[in-house]
Design brief:
This protein is mainly alpha-helical. The protein has helices spanning about 5-20, 20-35, 75-90, 100-115, 115-135, 140-155, 165-180, 185-190; strands spanning about 55-60, 60-65, 160, 160-165. The strands form two sheets. It has a two-stranded antiparallel ribbon with strand order 1-2. Strands 3-4 form a two-stranded antiparallel sheet. Helix 2 runs antiparallel to helix 3 (about 75-90), helix 5 (about 115-135) packs antiparallel against helix 6 (about 140-155) and helix 6 (about 140-155) runs antiparallel to helix 7 (about 165-180). The longest helix is centred in the middle third of the chain and has 21 residues, at about 115-135. The chain is elongated and about 60 Å long. The protein starts with a helix and ends in a 16-residue tail after the last helix. The mean pLDDT is about 85.
C-alpha cells in the first residue's frame, strides 16, 4: 500500500536531513524502533530532537502511528528501515540547499527501492544536483566534492536503459572547469556549461 503524500513527504524530509545530520539519523532509527514496537523508546531517555512527532501520537504509554495512518504502518516501517540501512554506513554530506530537497523528493522513492548499480547511479544524480546548488550558493569546496563523487557514480552506467556515461563525461568537463577557476568559480563559471540531466524519452 502506497504511503499518503503527506506521510511520504515527511519521511523524505527526515531522510534528506539524515544525509548530513547526526540527529536526523538518530530520529530515523527511532522511527524504525517505534514502528516495530510503540514502547521501544520508553527506557531510551529523551526523544531525538528531530523525531517527527507529527507522524505519531502518544497513547497507552507508547508512540503509535497517527490514527489516520494506521493502515500504512507496515509500509512506513519498511521504508524507514530501508533508508536506515542505506544511511548507516554512509558518510555525511554537507547541509543541502533547497534544490537538493526538490531533486531528492523526486528520486527518493526510486533510490530507496534500487539496488546495486541503480542505487549508485541515483545517488550520483542527487549528488550532482546538490553540488551545483552548492556552487550557486558560493560553497566551492562542497561543490567540487559532491560533483566529483556524483560524476564517479554515473560514469559508465545506465539507469532504466538510459546511458549515463555521456552525462558523466560532460559533467567531468564542468568539474575540470571549476578546478581551473578555483575560488572564483561562483563568479566565473558559465552556467550554460551545466550538462542537461539525462531523461528517458517516450520512444525509449
Amino acid at each position: 500500500m502506497a504511503l499518503p503524500l503527506a506521510l511520504r513527504n515527511r519521511l523524505a524530509e527526515l531522510i534528506l536531513d539524515a544525509l548530513h545530520d547526526t540527529g536526523a539519523r538518530e530520529a530515523l532509527t527511532a522511527v524504525v524502533k517505534v514502528c516495530g514496537n510503540p514502547h521501544a523508546l520508553e527506557s531510551a531517555g529523551p526523544l531525538p530532537e528531530a523525531f517527527p512527532e507529527d507522524m505519531f501520537e502518544r497513547r497507552e504509554g507508547g508512540w503509535h502511528i497517527a490514527s489516520g495512518y494506521r493502515q500504512h504502518a507496515g509500509e512506513l516501517l519498511e521504508r524507514a528501515e530501508r533508508a536506515r540501512r542505506i544511511l548507516h554506513e554512509r558518510p555525511f554530506d554537507p547541509p543541502d540547499p533547497p534544490l537538493a530537497f526538490e531533486v531528492h523528493e523526486l528520486l527518493e522513492p526510486y533510490w530507496l527501492r534500487a539496488e546495486g548499480g541503480d542505487r549508485e547511479a541515483l545517488q550520483g544524480l542527487i549528488q550532482v544536483a546538490v553540488g551545483f546548488a552548492h556552487l550557486a550558493n558560493g560553497n566551492v569546496s562542497g561543490a567540487r566534492s559532491l560533483l566529483h563523487d556524483g560524476c564517479a557514480r554515473v560514469l559508465e552506467r545506465t539507469l532504466e536503459g538510459v546511458p549515463l556515461d555521456p552525462f558523466g563525461r560532460a559533467l567531468q568537463r564542468s568539474l575540470d572547469r571549476l578546478l581551473t577557476l578555483g575560488d572564483d568559480a561562483p563568479r566565473g563559471f558559465d552556467w550554460n556549461e551545466v550538462p542537461r540531466f539525462p531523461v528517458k524519452t517516450i520512444d525509449d
